[in-house]
Amino acid sequence: RRKKMAIPIRISPLCRWAGRTLSSQSAGHRREVSLSAKRRFICTSTGNHLQFRLDERTAHSSLDLFKKDTGIIYRMLGLDPSQVQDDPERFREWAVVLGDKTISSGRHYWEVTVKKSQEFRLGVAEALMSRDECVGTSSSSWVFGYAQRKWFAMTGSKVVPVTLVGKPDRVGILLDYDARFVGLVDIEKPRIIHTLAARFTAPVCPAFGLWDGEILTHSGLEEPDGLK
User: Fold this and answer.
1) pLDDT tens digits, 202-213
2) Element (H, E) at 66
3) Can you give the pTM of this predicted structure?
4) Which tens digits make up the pLDDT trace of 116-153?
5) Are strands 63-66 and 141-147 parallel, antiparallel or unpaired?
6) Whole-angstrom Cα distance, residue 43 to residue 75?
7) What is the number of structural domains in the chain?
8) Which residues sit opposite 172 in a β-bridge?
9) Is 12 a domain residue?
């Protein structure tokens, strides 16, 4: 059930600088992903049982991938950005990484173990969103986040509190591209806790932001019965 009222909050605690990259770029000089980068997102999915890994080429230098590129660890110090391979797909400013599959239709479901993190975002983003923006603040991303012991839904910097979630060890994400929504799923019930309406105009992919601890993704799963 989607709550309609959005409330303003300060974004800085929820999507903070990862601590190592400094940029003199102004908003007017933000770069989009190049055409060569566009061609590298060649894996697409239109059916159920989406199977994906995390795309290291997109991972900010504060993030390490593990367990065959299905898990993410946040390193506060991270790597010196100058020591990370330059790639137009890499997020330059924020601790974000994308999945390696793009989605342009259908209904898809995956889960994320979050018990070892106190600050993260989970959802989807356009595969070609600006690498100078953060998931949630960008209008081409739709995420559920957890910070300061509270859950929220976020897109285009608009934040809606999500209640009655607690801090489960693992949650589900349901994407219905054709019905235009992303849902946060309680995997114990199972039930959709909250839905976030989305006007998809381009292919999207799983998206993750992480500012504490680690999370682990689980894909290739069947959607639980009873979700609508």
Assistant:
1) 999 999 999 999
2) strand 63-66
3) 0.80
4) 999 999 999 999 999 999 999 999 999 999 999 999 99
5) unpaired
6) 29
7) 1
8) 111, 185
9) no
